[in-house]
Amino acid sequence: MGPRLSMVKRLLSFALTTGLSSLVGLVAVPIIIAGAGPQLWGVQAALQTAATLFGVFVSFGWGTTGAAEIAGLAPDQRPQEYANSLVSRTYLALAVYPLMFCVMGILNPQHLALVAVGSATFLMPFLGASWYFVGEARPARLFWLDGFPQTLGVAVSVVVMVITRDLVLVLATQLVFNLAAVTLGARRIFRSSAATPHFDLSPRSAFRRLGHQRHAVATSATAGLYVSLPLLIVNGLAPASLSTYAMGDKLFRFALTAFAPFLQLVQGWLPEGGPGNLRHRIRQAARMTPVIGAVGGIAIAALGPLAAGILSAHRIDFGLVLSVPFGVVFAAVSVTQVIGLACLVQLRATRALAQSTLVGALSGIPLIALGAALSGAVGVAWALAASELAVLVYQYAALGRRMKDAATSPKTTPVGKKAAEER
Fold first, then answer.
1. CA nearest 185: which of 61, 51, 78, 53?
2. What would the pLDDT profile of 33-49 be if each residue is shown by its tens digit?
3. Is residue 420 part of a domain?
4. pTM score above 0.85
5. Which residues constitute the domain of residue 304?
6. How are the residues of the chain apportioned to helix, strand and coil, as percentages rounded to the nearest 5?
7. 418 in a domain, yes or no?
8. Three-class secondary structure of residue 317 per DSSP
9. At residue 417, does pLDDT exceed 60?
10. Count of structural domains within the chain
11. Residue 414 belongs to a domain
12. Beta carbons within 8 Å of 402's beta carbon, 6+ residues apart
């Protein structure tokens, strides 16, 4: 099989996981809106979005740079790395869950049972092994051991909604299947290891391991903050428009899920050619990604109102005034994911990656607050778009600098090898 055909096959394999998940999710949205109502669906969407922020402190960087790091490790070293991360992430989950429950409970005091179950449901995947399977370029494992159980849980929960019309039971059903995905993934990783991984359960050791993830978690935390903050602001200050903004956020995330196979492919493909081909492959990825992002952004802007009408049975008013800024957000985020999570990580520029998200947060948070005060959901959406464009500009500038440095250095040091301290 030629290299191009092999890449297409791998891309299709990754797409199978996200495609099936997106399809089931699309079917679930109108059924849940019809069964629970737009308001409760908006609360669920807020919980799911908040989990992307709180989940940062569960995955603690492994979900951000873990795939590239696993790709750079020898196969016999990978299971131990996952074992170490699983112990650390379990302790973190036990600390983060009550914090998320308190914050979201304050915002939604009349739905505490939904908040309690939903928080556990949406945090659980951050204990999973999706990043590990992407790093070892095993899309079949990603599908059967991670994506499929979670997707099956959503499908079963739709049936639960039709029968009970109880959103708490719906999310409890998803929680069971999310836990099954975590268990299956870990079991497969440890059974594939030639040597039994060592589990150091000492809390001191577990938290000491977090030190080398500082740049990665700073990246994901600041990104999660200004991506999740808009919906949380709307939830707290303008709950009447929560479902409208949540629909735009949902369309954006569906599109980002559809883009995920390309990101996963690039994360595994960049280091496969060896250090000598790394710069060439990075240039190819940097040229190709903006085209894909622009096409997706235009699709969201043009087709967003139609999609929102279908998903909500026209119960949520969502027009071009919101779909256009969300299209800009997707176009920018799709590019920054590849440039940041794939290219900069392979160049050992995780500090620049963290700094780029700090740029987004520092520019985005004030703009989001101003946009909410001046024009509500529309202002918030455009503020988010502006901050993502700022991140995009910063990352391309950082990539250009690191590529010049790599060209003049004796050799390019891939992720997973010992190297000098990052500049």
1. 78
2. 999 999 999 999 999 99
3. no
4. no
5. 3-408
6. 85, 0, 15
7. no
8. coil
9. no
10. 1
11. no
12. 344, 347, 349, 352
